[in-house]
Amino acid sequence: MEDCKSVIPMLEGEENLIAAVQHIAKALETNKNLTSDARKMLADLGTQLSSMTRVSENRDEGLSDIEERLNVVQDKVMNWEVDQSMIWDCGPEEAYEYVKAVGEARKLAESLESLCLSKDSEENELLRRAHDVLQTAMARLEEEFCHILVQNRQPFEPEHVSFRSSEEEVVDEGSIVSFGDDSVEDVLQRDSISRGSEEYIIDLVHPDVIPDLRCIANLMFDSNYDRECSQAFISVRKDALDDCLFILEVEKLSIEDVLRMEWNTLNSKIKRWIRAMKIFVRVYLASEKWLCDQIFGELKSVSSVCLAEASKVSMLQLLNFGEAIAIGPHQPEKLFRILDMYEVLADLIPDIDVLYTNEIGSYVKTECQDVLRRLGDCVKATFLEFENAVASNISTNPFAGGGIHHLTRYVMNYIRTLTDYGETLNVLLRDQDKEDPISFSPDMSPITEEDNTSESSSCCFSPMALHFRSLTSILECNLDDKSKLYRDDSLRHLFLMNNIHYMAEKVKVSELRNILGDEWIRKHNRKFQQHAMNYERATWSSILSFLKEEGIYNPGSNSISKTLLKERLQSFYLAFEDVYKSQTGWLIPDSQLREDLRISTALKVIQAYRTFVGRHVNHISDKYIKYSADDIENYLLDLFEGSPRSLHNCNRK
């Protein structure tokens, strides 16, 4: 209705104009003598009419030229729609001609858009045709863009990316600690790839086609088809990134899948995740960013959006695995792998911050920080669970032979391995201690005045040192409880001597020395030495009492009773044989400690025996002397081998 109203004044104006021209024509017929002013006005009117005619003619010629050019462009574009081959596969000349044609179509559309066109005008019809041609061309360019990206993908070979690792054997052969298939022997080297180093940028797409991709992208963006171009790139590169994870052996697993896994399987997948995470972020994503910049370099915001959108799903797949590990059971054997995951992710955070700079990327960065926090919480909870497991480890039977208990080996090798993560643990445990300050319970182990002095300066120790001290105290308390299962006090002290000596030696020869300190070592050296002395007293004091002078004289005289002397020797031999039979089955695993205790024992026993026999050699027949001093000494060398023997029916001859 509004259109009709606008047309009425135009019609009325044209009718009035015609009426005015007719009136002028009649006036000229009747009036042959015109004034100069009238002649001038008529001349100006003629000039104006002539100019209007030329403009109309030029406009017709312009439209004709545009239509002709559009026909050429349309033919070129539509010919390729019939042809099934890809334009860029047909050579650079064909590609150049097509790009030139599309550029011409874009310019024609822009020229027509600049005119004030009526709805049903010829120009508007040409504009519609130009848009149709341009739309067809853009769809073809999108197809060509994807084809070039896919066909020119470079093979990704992660085995050619070297992550040099310093593999160390961190658990001794005698330890029963098992932290997976290889017992913590593949410690990751930190900063194995230099951040931002160009040598780790690889060509994900053949470099020869980058100019073609950039040309297509610029043309589509200039034609306002930026969204279609970006989506095409993102779609293709999403698939490429997904293939990368497949090559890196990263499976698509749900949290439930991870939680159901057996530890050996999970351990293997964690190791793959650690390797994949480093390669994916520092090599593949860094190269992906370089590719985005090469193609969309003049459009920085577009480049960052494409990178974020293309890689988001793959990154979340990796992070989802980390989250599953973090919320899983806090089992002590998992702690080292969780620490590896935490350290790798923490080390990659700066790289991730550089890669993701836009709003979409901020979501990925936030997820990374959340998973890192959860892994840190898992580390703290797992370490505390380990402390609880040590404290609650209960034995119902004494440990055979009095050797080094499995728990002692486990704990000492466990904390020795943890020293490799000292910096990380100190940060995490410091946070933990702020929430729940650590305290040393007096019932953990006997506290001496010297200990009190040490404890008073506990503020000088790192959080890890404080927790390790607490843990060793818990272990000693547990070992003391286990020692009470022995009926023989000698074996009880031998057991404590072995285990505390093992603890002291583990600290002395490892990084634990710098954490627990030399005073800790001296304290525990004194402890195991005290248990060695207690063993000697419990074993030999009663036996050596048979070799004392008291009680071997006849009543009321100074003469020696041969009967009593004989009984004393027989009692000594019986007791010695009992000790030999039982204590050859006892075990001191450390050869130096075993030798030291044998020497100390031999010095006391041989001296007492040789003195007793030598002093009374004239009062007793040789047939009652069952063993020589050398025999006794040799038999003492058989003790603590863990293989029971008997001296029955043996004699020195």
From TrEMBL:
Gene Ontology molecular function: any one: phosphatidylinositol-4,5-bisphosphate binding
Family: Belongs to the EXO70 family.
Key words of the record: Exocytosis, Protein transport, Transport
Source species of the chain: Davidia involucrata (Dove tree)
GO cellular component, one term: exocyst
Family matches, as InterPro entries: Cullin_repeat-like_dom_sf, Exo70, Exo70_C
Reported function: Component of the exocyst complex.
Start and end residues of each Exocyst complex subunit Exo70 C-terminal domain: 271-638
Name assigned to this protein: Exocyst subunit Exo70 family protein
GO BP annotations, alphabetical order: exocytosis; protein transport
